[in-house]
Structures are given as structure tokens and as C-alpha cells.
Amino acid sequence: MKTVPILIGLALGVTLFSCPLNGLCLAAPISTVPKGQIYTKGLGLNAFDLHLVNQGRFAELTDKLSTQIDSSQANRDAAWLAFAYLYLQKCEDLNKLANSYNSANAAGAGTSTSKDINMILIKTFACLCDKKLDLAEKQLQSIPAEAMNDVFVNYAFATLSGKQGKPQVAIAYTKRAVELAPDFAWGYRTIAFLQERWLHQYKDAETNYSKALAIEPKLIEATAALINLHLANSEYDDAVAVAQSAITHNPRNSDNYRRLADIYIQQWRLKEATQQLRKAIAIDSQNSQIYRQLAFILNKEGDLKAAIDEQKKAITYSKDKSADLVTLASLELAAGQQNEAIDSLKEAIDLNPENMLAISELTRLSIQTGKFDQLVSELNKCAAKLPKNALIKLRLGDALAAALQTDKAIESYKDAANLNANDPDPHTKIAALLIAKKDYEAAAKEYTHSLNINSNSAPNLVALGCCEAELDDYLKAEAAFVTALALHQLTLPADSTVPPTRVEVIRGLAALLYKEGRYADAAAQFIAVSEMDKNSANANLNKFMGAQANALRDLSKESFNQLAEAYNSLPADEKNSQKINYIDTLLRGKHFDEALSLLVEIAQSDNPDHAPIPSASAPAINTHEPFYYICLSQAYLGKGNIDQAVTAAKQAIAICDKENSPHSDAYCQLAQVLFAKSDLSAAEENANKAIGINSKAFRAYVLLGNMAMKRKQPKLAVEAANKALEINPYYIDAYLLLGNAQLAQADLKAALSTYNKAADLYPGLLQTHESLLAVLNKIGTREEISKEQSIIASLKSKQ
Q1: Residue of 256, 253, 187, 195 lying closest to 227 (CA atoms)
Q2: What gap in Å lies between CA 571 and CA 574, rounded to an integer?
Q3: In the structure, what pLDDT confidence band is assigned to residue 478 with cuts at 50, 70 and 90?
Q4: What pTM, to 2 d.p., does this model score?
Q5: φ/ψ of residue 693, rounded to 5
Q6: Cβ atoms of 705 and 679 closer than 8 Å
Q7: pLDDT exceeds cutoff 60 at 22
Q8: What is the C-alpha to C-alpha distance for residues 787 and 695, in angstroms, rounded to an integer?
Q9: Burial (CB count within 10 angstroms: exposed 0-12, middle 13-18, buried 19+), residue 641
């Protein structure tokens, strides 16, 4: 006996050999099929059972058929029962059914299962349920050729093809089935489903859903799908017509009214939607979805009290009370009932500790209302129930951070990071807390870790740049800002308001260049920022920051007058916040009297009885940042008040010690003052302390180099200067030190090259030109000397 597998050509447009049925080829041994096993007309179902199939009511079909099948022989009812089990994924029941007929056959009952189509179908469906597609296909291939006109056989092949991911083939078989049985509404529904979900042939799907409903108006799945297709195309009238037809044919089904209400809601026809929902409640008063929709409408109409009442009814009948409690909390919050909202969220979490939305909302709301301890307690309970849940640990960290329990918060974030290695958020949050602790090195590591997970985070790149700048690693800082800017340009429109905005990134880059000492580059960037941001509330701030860079680029009296004008144009609150930055610029430009005057203002505003004055000692005002006292020390040093400068620098160090956050700049400033006092040993000790805290402290290396020059050790000075320039290639004091050391070594050409670089980088700095002239007087031409003398004269006239 010869057997040929089933081949499909129609749907794929492929014909492998002559097919007797539009390319659907069935071939099998020539045999006699038991009488009653081939159904050449219809589906082998009585009228009532056909209605159940056509309406998709397979649960009811299984209850009915399981009581009326022939236990001795697999009939068509048994085959349909098997399909219903497959559809409902009741694989255990399906396998029991298949095994019962195998046992009956083994006992000699019934006909030969090799020729029993119904038995083959049952086995096929059992294999499909167990995801044994190859075995299912093998079973169907054994069906005799005479069965080619059996509707259910064709539908079985369609079911197999669908499971195999061959929608076109499945459609071809189902089309054959509905041709053989025009009353097979579920077949049209199957065709439409495949066209919609798999092939995205939406118009064809609409046609076949309509055909299904023409046969069986109570096919709810087809009604819902057809309505959704119409809504997707904004065909509201057509959607309404389908929904109203469903109501006409099945007026006792509450879902039909709810479905029509959905359409009205999308059209903002809220009163009509409410009417339909009231009708639905009259039929089914325990349907939670109806009350949810009513609550939604009432909320939109501004009746929050009624909306809350309806949402509470939804919770009463809800199968997911936890989710509905979150919705209730949002309504209560909108009504100003914060405590009630918190209670609803807590109840939602008690019912379902894995409700992350409830946990996130409770965290946000509790932090907003300052209920930190209660929040920490609640989240600790959740963490105890679900110790492996990373998001709970993350939210617990948020709660602890809000409660100022920083160390515990960091530990919770670390737990979250360990539980989910692919989430960058814990590292970002840890970094933010470390910045608050002024641990910039550790913060930079966390931002780097976060960026290793998600490299496309502009905010984290900017934050990393800020950390690297605090660590004096300007090359890394600049790389981070430039990458953030490039990322912004590639992924977002120029006018995007997503923070950080493009202008914010450029402003940050300009501020970095200023801090680095690249004043000309910073000034150019601030010009771009001012142009981009000229109509914003930051216009005055941009002008001030640009004026800072211009002042230090030119070092002229006019540029500092323009800086003062820009500073005085700032709004009062902004002027106050920028005062210390203005002071820093004045100090860099050696405007010590003005800087000291402003420092006195700051102290007087904090403590009028203890203002710093040029006397025996600086005041002890612990409320200030160390940077305040560093600036104060610089101002006193510039005025020649060495003892006051020492006291202020020590005060900066004392604050750092108190906060357990050593500050290399404070030690560096003390070293600077002690160097000016000619206490080289103490100065060297403090400079090395600064380097011990921050290996990138380039100013400290320059100080060590200047000490080497005092000790007549120019070789060591060259090494120190080169180390500083390796860290910051734009630090002017390092160039001056290097040139001086080279000059001391009688290496005039090297000194000339170094001073020329310094003059190119800082053309407005008189000292660089005077140093350059000193070398040119020895090895330069008359023209070079004359040119440099003219530049010096011009600079002096502007100062």
C-alpha cells in the first residue's frame, strides 16, 4: 500500500503535482472508511452544538459533549470535544479522552483506529495540545483520500497549519471548510483572525468577520474584533452599527452595551455612554468593568465623589482588586484625599505585594507628603515577602534616601543592582547620593557602570562629566559632555525640552571649559548658548557666564566692568546664588578688593556679628562650604594678609574633616599660602596631602614644582610641570613653571616654545608675554622683540 503526505499549494501558489482539489492534495491508501466517519455535508454537529461552536462557547460545548459521547467508539462528537479541549488548552482532559479510546481499541472494541478519522482527529488534537507538531502532522497524513470533502478534516488541517505558523495555508484549508459548510461561522472567524493578526490584511478581515456575524450574530469575539478594526480606522459610525446590531440580536448580554459605551467614550459622547452602562448594570450588576467605565466618565465630567463611589463598586466585584485599588487611589488623590489614597495603595500592596504600580505610586505619594517612616516600614514588609524583587529594593532605596538614611539607601540600591544587572537606575541613584556626599570618584564609577548598561543616557553622561570635572580630570569630563551633545543631536530635535536640553548641555560644556581655564573656548561656547537661549528666562545668566569667560580671556578693565554689569543685571535670587562664582572670577583676575568685599557680604548675611575683616583671624562660620573659605584665603593672600589666609584655609580643611569629605583644594590652598610664607616644608606636606586625596590635583603639582625652583631644583620642577600639564593641558601656571624651569636649565629654545604656547592659549595674560619677552631678549630677533613689547604695552594700557 502506498502513502503520500498531504501537500498544500493553493495558499502558497505552489503546485508540486496534480492536485484534485484546488491545490489541496490529500492522498492515502485506497481503503474503505467505516460508515459514518466521513461527513460530506455539514460539520457532524446537531443544530444546538453548532450554535455553541459558532458562538465560540467551547466551555459549554465540553460540558455537553462529555456527557453524550460514545465511550466505545470515537464519533464526531468526541472529535469536536477534543478540539474544544485543545482550544481551551485542557490538555490533561484531552489526553484522557484519547487514551480512553486507545484502551477501548486495545480491548477489541470499535473499529480499526488506523481507518477511524475521528480517532485520528482526536490524536492529532492531543499532539497539538502537547506541542508535538510533527506527530500531529503524521497523524493527519494517515487520513484517507476519501475524506477530502470532510469539513472538520479540512479544519483540522487548518488548525495544524496555524500552529505551524503558516497562516496562508491555514486560511486555504479553512476556506475549503466554509465552502463545504456555509453555516460554519467559526470558520469565517478563523479566516478573519488569521488575516488580522498574522497577515495584517485588515479589510479582508473585516469582510470575514462580517460573514461570521451574518451567520451567527451572537459571536461575541467577531463583534469585538470587527468593532476594533473600525475604530482603528476612525470608522465610528460603522463601529456603532456593529455594536447596535449585537444588542439587537442579544439584548440580554451586558457586554454588548458596554462595548457600545466604549465607542461613545472614544467619541466623547459621555452622556450616551453612561446610558448604555446603566443598561448594562440592569442586566449584570456585578460586572466590575462597567463600574470602572462609569468611574472614568464621572472623573472626566469632574464629579470625583461619584467617580470614587463607582470605582469602589468596581473593587467589590473585581477579580483584580489590587489593580482597581490603584485606580481608586488616583481618583482619591485627584479629590485631594491624600491619606485615603495612601491607604488604598497600602491595601493594594497587601493584596498583591508584586503590584509594582501600587508600590511606585505609594513611594511617590509618601515622599511627596513627607511620610517617610511609614513608607520605609511598608516597603520593608514587601521586601521581606519578595526578597528577590529588584524593583521593591529600588523603591525602598528611594524611601530611605528621602528619609535621609543615605547609607541604607545606597545598600538597598546595591541590592537592586545585584538582583537586576541590566537595570542602570540603581547605579544612577547611588551616584546621585554619592555626589551629595561629595564622593565624586565613587559617583563617577557608578555613572560609568550605569552607562555601560545604557550608553544612550545624556543625563548620565552630563552627570559623569560634572563628577570628572570635580576630580580635575578635564579630559574625561570634556569627553562626557561632547558625547552627550552628540547623542542629543543624533536622537532628539534641536528644540526638544527633554532634560538635559541641547542648550543645557552646551552651557555645561562651556562651564567646564571655563573651569579648565580655556577661557577663549568657553567664551565662544557661551556666545552660542546666548544665541540659542536668548528668549528664555536664562538669558541674563547666559550673559553673565559669558562675561566671566570674556573677563578672564581679556583680563582688561573693560571686560571686568562688563562682568560687573552682567552680574548686577541678574535677578536678586540668581544674583545671590551666583555670587560665589562671581567672586571666583574676580580672584582669578586678581581683583582681590572686590572679591573680599563680596565675601564679607556673604558672611554678614549669614551671621552679622561675625563678618570676616582684614584683621587677626577669619571668622569660624561652619554653615559655609569649604569653597567659601578657600576663596576667602585667596583674597587675603592676594591682599598680602598671610596669617588671615592661613586661618581661612585651615577653616576650609576643618569643615571638610567635620563632614568627613576631604577636599584636596583646601589642602592645596593651605600649601599655596604656606609657600607664600616661605614655609616650604609645611607647604610641601599639604601639597602632597592634596595629591593623596586627588591624584589629579594639578595645582598641587605646580606648587611642588615652584618649591623645587625655590630649592634650585629645576629638573624636579620640569617633572612637576609636565605632570600637571598631563592632567590639564590648559593650565597656564604649569606652562609658566615649565618655562621658568627650562630657563633655569639654560634651555632657551625649550623655554621659548613653552612661553609661546602659553601666549597662544592666554593672549590676554600679561605675565606670559613678559616671560616670553625675557627669552626673546636673549635669542629673539629685533622684530620679535618689538612685536612682543607692543603687545605688552597694549595689555598694560587696558589694565
Answers
A1: 256
A2: 5
A3: very high
A4: 0.70
A5: -80, -40
A6: no
A7: no
A8: 40
A9: buried
